[in-house]
From TrEMBL, chain A:
GO biological-process terms attached to the record: positive regulation of rRNA processing; positive regulation of transcription by RNA polymerase I; rRNA processing
Signal peptide per UniProt: none
UniProt WD repeat ranges: 53-95, 216-247
Organism, scientific name: Gadus morhua (Atlantic cod)
InterPro entries assigned to the protein according to its UniProt record, in alphabetical order: Beta-prop_WDR75_2nd (IPR057644), WD40/YVTN_repeat-like_dom_sf (IPR015943), WD40_repeat_CS (IPR019775), WD40_repeat_dom_sf (IPR036322), WD40_rpt (IPR001680), WDR75 (IPR053826)
Sequence ranges assigned to domain WD repeat-containing protein 75 second beta-propeller in this UniProt record: 312-635
Stated name of the protein: WD repeat domain 75
GO cellular component: small-subunit processome
Entry keyword set: Membrane, Nucleus, Repeat, Ribosome biogenesis, rRNA processing, Transcription, Transmembrane, Transmembrane helix, WD repeat
TrEMBL record, chain B:
SMART domains membership: WD40
GO-annotated molecular function: RNA binding
One Gene Ontology biological process: maturation of SSU-rRNA from tricistronic rRNA transcript (SSU-rRNA, 5.8S rRNA, LSU-rRNA)
Name of the molecule in the record: UTP4 small subunit processome component
Signal peptide: none
Regions annotated as coiled coil: none
Any Pfam family: WD40
One of the record's GO cellular component terms: 90S preribosome
Length: 697, 687
């Protein structure tokens, strides 16, 4: 196989903006948050993304404002560098390499480093510290000198470490583990959150054993985030309940709530002037709260729920990616802007935040070719499977989907696939395939005006045909590009039907192995039907009804580009996934990439480009008309061709700046010994449920 | 261990009385606890919280407040009297009328020279302590409403008094309100309770002139007494703050609430480098289901008591060594002495209540079953006698003769003896006159053959009476050769009728020879009070278990500790035996095996087999369940002398009857809890 130097897999959107706590700038105008390998600067008032700070080669693991220049921000990354950015202009100022050689220390110090980034190269290593940055907090400032080189040495001489432990025996111990920590900005008070929902306020740790704590309890499950307001008058806490709780410091009996924030709170940040609160949530969302009471802005990234159950689709109208997001919702996600456009509530039931509770989930969704109809399947598998099929019509007036028909219990078993026929006429057909042994065709029926009823009754969907084949379980279905043929696979057999008359035209089979995926060729290759079993990929010629070719491949996903003849096949090898792009007419792939990414790819989509590329390289020609996006277990990836990359490079001048600074800084970083203001406490939590307090002297 | 037929007795509906007041004497480390029925109990905190003395109550006497003045103990109640207690003879010494209506509170100054009482009519009265009495000294300015709480300034010059809606500080010498001081008006509760006046249930006067108050609106408030200004308010509960207690160094304060929680406040600085300190709310201890009425802050622990009748000792973890015996929280519910006597031969039980006695006959069963099986009862247990006491004084001790034919009880003012005659189903109770010599008794005991009655009297002396048909004749007074004036709390005779042993709260054990009616010897005094004691039926050895869980066996003939006792002392007891909180309350012996010592505390009963080796330090003490699953050889190898059964809980008595069956008297705590009045309503999550 040829290494394709001119295309490269890049991380395109969908990265977690809630991975680390965001940063609010001094003037509260901007919100800076990590997003995979880049850093994003949002406006707190308009929710608009202002800058993408790109430069890190690996995941960005921390952000902190430069205390000596409030227009700059430090970031650190798994690539072992700390970078200083000017976030108003979006340019990189300086790069510092960390002198941490062994991966294990890098791992445990990463979080420390990101907090210590303000001392410019002065690093202190804490041992047996949880790597979660929520487990580290800094108290009020006291002058300190730190040394760079002998890391562990300086630690033992400049720290007094106190350990506070909670009871580790009995039933309580498993639940009262530390989850997060915050330091009071003025008083010597440390707040810790615990797994059982309690918040403890520790005080009086001047001498050993003299410390004391008080406990407040509101959260019913673990406290995920704690934060003091800048003046120390309030303590904010959040957790699974998705309620922001505001405790009065000193009078913890009084508390205020901001409920219904959508989903579980992961981090809480307060702006330096205390006017804005910012909560980041587990559903990849950042909420900006103004004046303690009002949600003023919501920045929503791609929601990775417990798993993407629906196929990836592209909404033809908005060009947005459609997939399930929040429980019971379908999200419309803009690929260009890397931002969620809107959420469509499918289930229309209150989501109850409780484990072991079976709730309705959106499992299948399909859009028709013009984007005027949306079909969704929701399912709850409590004792017996409850399914309902919903059909949504696009309303031009409100510019959103409106529920048209709800069919409860459309099938007796779980639905394995639904698809719309691509016919361009007004009437369209939906086919649903279920494990109960049937497939059903649904059609929009206009109310009959002759039966005397009111004519303002809307058109609704009803069942048109029920098909089966030797009572075998059907698995997948596929319409040909012109909508004249429907292929449904029953175990090893592919049946081809005519949607016009619902006649069984022919059957194809290539045992052994049940068919896992089906796909018709497009354009000039529309006479071919591709089928994937767990071991083979077969291609049938529908004109001759015979097997054209077959090859041994473990295909996890077959995908046809609607704008070209190309078909992409993702093949699951051991732990990694290979990609082959080919035309059904010839079995030789014209693009292949091995070890594309780790993990099995089961969701991908061809998104049509706004304007086709004119790349002439053979290996990247298949990307000219549409772009291939695919979803791994934690991110959305795509291919970047060389022309695109060059165009991007030309746009950003910062690359040159980057290289220049890097040279300079490598020489000076080790020599900078600047005493700086740093906190008196570096408070850390160890994984073994001990709260370690270090006093830097 | 052997198999027993067990009578599991649950019909003794013993009901502990609510704790209404507590006072701690720092110098002697004695805690006085007053209960709602007027009983006053003295616990020795230097000796594992052992209940050393019980002063029985009296009808019509309630105790609202207790206080120590030096070694003297005073109480007041709503009958308007001040009572001083005779701690040697365990009775009230005298009462003084305060002439101010019901007395709500009493407090002594730190020097122990003056007493202040707060009365219903709004007066604060000062009494001076004189030898063997108290003398009225002065009346302060009268307040508008009842005085609910008092606290002396440590210097003894000022008193803070909490009344309805306000706190006033008096100058002790002039009896006037301090000139610089305005009345400190306590805010009423918000909302609907605005019209209801606020009762200041408790005040604490600190040496830095801070007054801290706890009130019925649920607030703990910190006041500057010189300026009369409020410094800080902590809203602790929706209900009442009933009690406050401050530590000796004034760095920690406890507040007990009606919700049953105890809230700790600590006097700490907000920043390490600044000297300014303030009272910060810290821990919340939840050990009670009902109102916490009384609180004591010792140097190492929070002691609380309330309407649920539990006395709870919660050590502060930072003040004690972790894992030591001091660090174990302790909950005392049952008295540390036996309220049950067994008529061993007749199969009857005597239950002692403060106002009555009950005699029950045990049920019978003819079946034999496998261990753990429940046998069906052919004859149900039946109540034979309900005997109401005469007079106002509560019963302090009672006993049943082993044959079941005699019954005796004593109160502070009388001793009564009855003969029981069983005539098939009917039972006849005849009162037997006792000689006038015996006006009261601390302990009563029958000899094994029921021919004699022993009654302990003042100064540890024992009176001996000979019982014949319907007559009791004074025989002799046994006197120890010591100067101790303390009352006897344990008395035991040997089955052969030769020995009588008494133990008093000075930890002395005296032994008398009954054949010669003569003092025999005194067991070497050990530093901890004996909590249970018995004389071996054949070996003439006395076995004593002390409040610190140590076990001694003393040979009366050789007048020295036995070989087994020495080896036990040499090896040391097992750590988990010593760390038990509840003291052993009963020792008995097996008639079938002379090597067995049967003893029990509140949570377990144990048979010590002297023929087996003592447990090793690192072995498991409670290994009965493990042994059962082992094979014969391993069982022999692993078994040790302490055979502990934890099957029965909340034990009041375990006794071995003559037919080799075991009587286990249980009083489940849940039964007690269900008989308590409903606690205040609290919002519980998910209800």
């Amino acid at each position: 196989m040829v290494a394709h130097a001119d295309t490269r897999v890049v991380h395109r959107g969908g990265s977690k903006i809630n991975f680390r706590a965001p940063v609010i700038t001094q003037d509260s105008r901007f919100l800076i948050c990590v997003s995979g390998e880049c850093i994003k600067v949002f406006s707190t008032s308009t929710e608009e993304c202002i800058h993408h700070l790109q430069g890190h080669k690996e995941l960005v693991t921390g952000l902190v404002l430069n205390p000596s220049n409030h227009l700059q921000v430090f970031s650190c990354s798994e690539d072992g560098t700390i970078r200083l950015w000017d976030f108003t202009d979006g340019i990189l100022i300086r790069v510092t390499l960390l002198h941490l050689k062994t991966p294990s220390t890098l791992h445990s110090t990463r979080v420390v480093v990101e907090q210590h980034v303000m001392v410019k190269g002065h690093t202190i290593v804490f041992q047996s510290v949880s790597t979660d940055p929520k487990c580290i907090a800094f108290g009020q400032g006291v002058r300190m000198h730190a040394l760079t080189h002998s890391l562990t040495h300086s630690l033992t001489h400049s720290h007094t470490v106190f350990g506070f432990a909670l009871g580790t025996s009995g039933e309580m111990a498993a639940r009262n583990a530390f989850t997060c920590v915050a330091c009071h900005p003025k008083d010597d008070c440390i707040a810790t959150g615990h797994g059982d929902g309690k918040i403890r306020l520790w005080r009086n740790f001047n001498q050993e054993k003299e410390y004391t704590f008080s406990t407040v309890h509101w959260h019913h499950s673990g406290v995920n985030a704690l934060c003091f307001t800048p003046e120390g008058t309030n303590l904010l806490s959040g957790g699974l309940e998705s309620v922001l709780v505001q405790w009065r410091y000193g009078q913890e009996g009084q508390k205020d709530f901001l409920p219904r924030l959508g989903s579980s709170i992961k981090e809480i940040v307060v702006s330096p002037d205390g006017s804005l609160f910012c909560t980041s949530h587990t559903d990849n969302k950042i909420t900006v709260i103004k004046n303690c009471t009002k949600v003023s802005a919501v920045i929503q990234g791609l929601v990775h729920g417990d798993g993407v159950k629906t196929a990836l689709m592209v909404d033809p109208r908005t060009k947005a990616l459609v997939l399930n997001g929040k429980p019971g919702h379908l999200q419309f996600y803009s690929l260009q802007r890397d931002q969620q456009l809107y959420n469509l509530d499918i289930v229309q039931q209150e989501y109850i935040n409780q484990s072991n509770l079976d709730q309705f989930e959106v499992v299948k969704a399909a859009l028709d070719s013009r984007g005027s109809w949306l079909a969704t399947v929701e399912q709850r598998s409590a004792k017996e499977v409850e399914i309902s099929l919903k059909l949504w019509a696009f309303d031009e007036h409100t510019q959103s989907f409106v529920l048209n028909t709800t069919i409860s219990a459309p099938h007796d078993g779980p639905i394995s696939e639904i698809c719309f026929s691509p016919s361009s006429q007004n009437s369209t057909t939906l086919v649903s395939v279920s494990l109960d042994g049937h497939f059903k065709a649904w059609q929009l029926t206009q109310p009959d005006p002759s039966d005397g009823k009111q004519s303002d009754e809307e058109a609704s969907w009803s069942c048109d045909f029920v098909g089966d084949y030797h009572s075998l379980e059907p698995k997948c279905c596929c319409f040909s590009a012109d909508g004249s043929l429907l292929a449904v696979s029953f175990k090893e057999v592919v049946t081809v039907w005519s949607p016009a008359s619902w006649d069984l035209l022919t059957t194809l089979s290539q045992p052994p192995g049940a068919i896992q995926d089906l796909c018709f060729g497009r354009l000039s290759c529309s006479k071919y039907l591709l089928g994937a079993t767990d071991k083979n990929l077969c291609c049938w010629n529908l004109l001759t009804c015979s097997l054209e070719w077959s090859t041994a491949l473990d295909v996890s996903l077959l995908l046809a580009d609607p704008l070209s003849e190309n078909v992409a096949a993702f093949c699951g090898a051991e732990k990694t996934t290979d990609l082959f792009v080919f035309r059904p007419s010839e079995p030789r792939p014209h693009f292949s990439q091995q070890a594309l990414c780790t993990g099995r790819v089961t969701r991908a989509v061809f998104a049509p480009r706004d304007e086709p590329l004119d790349g002439c390289e053979e290996s990247s020609q298949w990307l000219n008309r549409s772009q291939l996006y695919f979803l791994t277990h934690n991110m959305l990836l795509t291919f970047l061709t060389k022309p695109e990359e060059e165009r991007l490079m030309a746009l950003s001048k910062q690359v040159a700046v980057l290289k220049k600074h890097k040279q300079e800084f490598l020489h000076t970083s080790c020599l900078l010994f600047i005493s700086l203001f740093i906190s008196q406490f570096a408070l850390t939590l160890s994984a073994i449920m001990t709260l370690v307090l270090s006093i830097l002297t | 261990m052997g198999e027993f037929k067990v009578h599991r007795v649950r019909f003794f509906d013993y009901m502990p009385s609510a704790i209404s007041a507590m006072a701690f004497n720092v110098h002697t480390e004695r805690l006085a606890v007053a209960r709602a029925d007027g009983t006053v109990e003295i616990y020795n905190f230097a000796d594992n919280c052992f209940q050393e003395k019980v002063i029985p109550g009296k009808d019509g006497r309630t105790v609202e407040a207790l206080c120590w003045a030096g070694q003297r103990l005073f109480s007041t109640g709503l009958n308007g009297e001040i009572v001083e207690y005779d701690l040697e003879n365990l009775r009230s010494k005298y009462t003084v009328e305060a002439y101010g209506g019901p007395v709500w509170t009493i407090s002594s100054n730190s020097q122990g020279t003056q007493l202040a009482v707060g009365c219903e009519d709004g007066t604060v009265k000062i009494f001076e302590l004189v030898e063997d009495s108290i003398q009225f000294q002065s009346n302060f300015d009268r307040l508008k409403s009842r005085v609910l709480s008092l606290s002396w300034h440590p210097s003894g010059t000022q008193i803070a008094a909490g009344t309805m809606d306000m706190i006033r500080v008096f100058n002790v010498t002039t009896g006037e309100t301090c000139t610089a001081l305005l009345q400190m008006m306590v805010d009423r509760a918000a909302g609907a309770n605005k019209k209801k006046e606020v009762a200041v249930w408790s005040v604490v006067f600190l040496s830095d002139n801070t007054v801290i108050s706890g009130d019925s609106a649920g607030k703990v408030q910190v006041w500057d007494s010189q300026m009369g200004t409020l410094i800080r308010t902590h809203l602790v509960t929706k209900w009442d703050v009933m009690a406050l207690a401050v530590s000796r160094d004034e760095s920690s304060l406890l507040a007990g609430t009606s919700e049953g929680s105890v809230v700790q406040f600590q006097f700490i600085s907000a920043r390490l480098d600044q000297p300014d300190k303030e009272w910060q709310r810290t821990r919340t201890l939840r050990s009670h289901s009902h109102d916490v009425r009384a609180l004591v802050h010792t140097d190492t622990a929070a002691v609380s008591g309330g309407n649920d009748a539990h006395l709870v000792v919660r050590p502060f973890m930072e003040k004690v060594v972790k894992g030591s015996k001091e660090s174990a929280p302790c909950k005392i519910t049952f008295p540390h002495r036996s309220l049950v006597s067994c008529g061993k031969k007749a199969g009857i039980l005597l239950f002692q209540f403060p106002e009555r006695l009950e005699v029950w006959r045990l049920g019978e069963s003819n079946e034999n079953g496998i261990p753990g099986e429940e046998l069906s009862v052919t004859k149900k247990p039946e109540a034979l006698i309900h005997l109401k006491r005469k007079g106002d004084d509560h019963i302090c001790c009672s006993t049943l003769s082993p044959c079941g034919g005699w019954l005796a009880y004593a109160s502070a003012s009388s001793v009564r003896l009855f003969q029981l005659q069983y005539d098939n189903d009917s039972i006849a109770l005849t009162k037997v006159k006792l000689p006038k010599v015996l006006r009261w008794a601390n302990q009563l005991c029958f000899s094994a053959d029921s021919s004699r009655l022993f009654a302990s009297f003042s100064q540890s002396s024992v009176l001996v009476f000979a019982l014949s048909k319907s007559e009791a004749k004074y025989v002799h007074t046994l006197k120890p050769k010591s100067v101790s004036k303390q009352a006897v709390h344990l008395m035991s005779t040997s089955d052969d009728g030769q020995w009588l042993a008494t133990a008093n709260s000075d930890c002395e054990v005296h032994v008398y020879n009954l054949k010669k009616l003569k003092y025999h010897c005194t067991v070497p005094v050990y530093g901890s009070c004996p909590s249970a004691m018995a004389i071996h039926p054949t070996g003439s050895n006395v076995v004593m278990v002390h409040a610190d869980q140590k076990i001694f066996e003393y040979s009366l003939e050789q007048k020295e500790y036995t070989e087994w006792s020495r080896s036990l002392a040499k090896k040391g007891l097992h750590g988990s035996w010593l760390n038990r909180v509840a003291p052993v309350t009963h020792v008995s012996f097996s008639a079938s095996n002379p090597d067995y010592i049967i003893l029990h505390d509140m949570n377990m009963f144990c048979i010590i087999d002297k023929s087996l080796p003592l447990p090793e330090k690192d072995s498991d003490l409670c290994n009965q369940n493990q042994l059962r699953s082992m094979n014969e050889a391993a069982r022999v190898k692993d078994s040790h002398a302490f055979k502990i059964c934890e099957m029965f809980k909340n034990l009041l008595c375990v006794g071995l009857m003559e037919d080799h069956s075991l009587v286990v008297v249980e009083r489940p705590l849940l039964d007690i809890a269900t008989r308590l009045p409903a606690p205040v309503r609290q919002k519980k999550f998910a209800t």
